[in-house]
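Q:
Got a chain?
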Amino acid sequence: MSSDDKKIERAVLNTRIIRLPKQKLATFGTTNLAYFMLTEPAYREAGDELAETVVREGRVIAEKPKIVTPYYLSHLEGFSEDARRYFNTLLQSPQAHTPGLYYAYKNELRQTNIVSEDITSVVRKISEEIDRKADPLASIIRGEDELWDVSLLKFIYELTRSSVGHNVRQLQSRGLLEVDYGGVPQDARLGIEALFREVIRGEREPKDLKEELDRWGVFEEYEDRFFAVFRRRR
C-alpha cells in the first residue's frame, strides 16, 4: 500500500459522522444537504494546548437518483480497459438489463473559519443551532484536516447507503424499475420523453437526446421522431 493510500485509509478510519440528516435522499428530486466539517488544524503539533477547530461549512447537492443498467453504464466514458472488460462480461449475462440506481453529487464549499474552541464545544453549539432552525438536511462531520474531502465522501457514502433502500421501494411502488421488452426501465422511457420535450422547447441540445438514446441502444426505435425534432430546430 502506498503512502497516499495509507493517508486516505487513516482519514476514512478517523472520520466520525456526528449528525446525519434526519431525511433520506429524495427519490424524485434534488436534495440540498448542509454540512459542517470539523477538523483540528493540520499545523497543530502534539502537546499544543491551544484549542482550535477548523469549521468548513458547505452544501452537497445530490441529484435525483437515476435508474441505470450495466448496458447503459458500458457506454459511459472515463472507464479503464479492465472496467470495460468487466462490463462486457455483464452484458453477456442475464443481469445486463438489471436496473440499479446511480447517484451524482456536487460539493459546494461556502466558507472556512478557524475558531478558538475545542471540537466538542463547537459540535454542541452547531448542533443547538441546527435544532433551533429545525433543519432536517443538516449534518455534522468530524474529519481529517488535510483530507477533509475524503471525510466528506465517507459521509456521502454512508448517507447513500442509508437512503438507497427507501429510494428503491418508492421507485418500485410506481413501477419505474420495471424493464420493458428492449431492456429499458420505465423511468428511462419517461426520461427520454422529457428530453424530447426539452429539445423541442430549446432547453436542451439535440446531441444530448442523441447521446441518451445511444446509451440505451434505442436510437433506431426513436430515429424518425429524433430527425423530425432535429429538422424543427434548424
